[in-house]
Amino acid sequence: MIESLLVANRGEIARRIIRTARRLGVRAIAVHSEADAELPFVAEADEAVCVGPANPAQSYRNTEAIIAAARSTGAQAIHPGYGFLSENADFARTVEASGLIWVGPGADAISAMGDKINARNLMAAAGVPVAAGTTEPAADLTAAVTAAAEIGYPVMVKAAAGGGGMGMGVAADETALRTEYDKVRAFAERMFGDGSVLLERYFPRVRHVEVQILGLADGRVLALGERECSVQRRNQKLVEESPSPAVSPELRTRLLAAAVRAGEAVNYRNAGTVECLLDSTTGEFFFLEMNTRLQVEHPVTELVHGIDLVEEQLRVAAGLPPTFDPEALTVRGHAIELRINAEDPKRFLPGPGTISTWVEPTGEGVRVDSGYAEGNTVTPFYDSLMAKLIVHGQDRTEAIARAREAVAAFNLAGPKHNLPFFADLLENPEFLSGTYDTTIVSRLR
Q1: How many Cα atoms occupy the beta-carbon half-sphere of 244 within 13 Å?
Q2: Beta strands 27-33 and 4-7: pairing type?
Q3: Gap between the Cα atoms of 131 and 288, Å rounded
Q4: 236: exposed, middle or buried (C-beta count within 10 Å: 0-12, 13-18, 19+)?
Q5: In 3-state terms, what secondary structure has residue 402?
Q6: Which of 15, 16, 293, 367 is catalytic?
Q7: What is the pTM of this model?
Q8: How confident is the prediction for the chain on average, in pLDDT?
Q9: Residue 293 among the catalytic residues
Q10: Going by DSSP bridges, is the β-strand pair 155-159/197-201 parallel, antiparallel, or unpaired?
Q11: In the β-sheet with 197-201, what is the strand arrangement from edge to edge?
Q12: Do residues 252 and 226 touch, judged by C-beta distance below 8 A?
């Protein structure tokens, strides 16, 4: 097993990785910005290094500072968490070139899946269903208009280098396309340094279902069940659950098999996620993207399978077999995750501030992965996620009941927060029925 681990991230995911590392007897090293010096993950690490000011480009995305911190602390490996440098192939190569262990997939797999057009083409070649779309970047607006006419409106305009719901727009006709193309291209150049744009057929009423994969050290790729991620705002997830209430045993077999093919197509190692759009009426699903990292929503998979995905990541990186028997993995009950964000519960606009009250819910089947505590300040420099409230029950009905109780018991004051939104959602007939799709939030506002 790895003996010392530097966590190149912050907040709840850094704290969560540190928790597993310390349980395994692995020395945990945190890096942090000046703005995060007082957060719990810094105090809970065995050692912590400040790598720069609040601006992520000068701290959490500062490759040189992070590698220097690893060298100065004697770290053996680096875990990137999610976001920041987690899907940066150049960083993965730099880590390994520095003689460190990279806890994640190979740089080639990251590169292959980081370009959404290349990813679509690779998946199609591997027999994974893909929606109608462009097989090369739309070089200019004229090319985009021509492609959209062939695909058929409405179309999704996407940044080829984007991910996580960023750099996307919907065009219902040519007039809208002309606006969205310029907008997405400018955003992509600013955020990703790559203005390449792709077009895909847009499905107004679909579900967002993803499969957790784990590429083992021996070369096998496993599918660890699916997660339902259709409760979204601005194409970004708010709620995840596993198993998906929309997936039948027959569909699950097809979905998981496609995810394994996707992983095998790029010789995938470590944890990753194959995201798909699902038409629950027809049972058709289409590849959306592959996230070459640990997902925010990984706890629901952990709870229904009884495993620790961070531990499995460390074992793969160390060349060790998994802790479980891949042939005997079973699903145990139902799990739901709610993302507790510092944002207005109606308009979902950020609302940072100092936390005056923070009392987490407890009880059977309740887990809270938090990045903050009472007295901490949620700053405007980073993502608004404060904590993840995860519940587990014998079935979906019990999980929802526990989620209601936990939301009511979560005492949080100071920043704006979206707990009232979850209280409404957990009483909503459409959500309770399990028949909801990606448009449900628009009907709750």
Answers
A1: 30
A2: parallel
A3: 8
A4: middle
A5: helix
A6: 293
A7: 0.93
A8: 96
A9: yes
A10: antiparallel
A11: 168-171, 155-159, 197-201
A12: yes
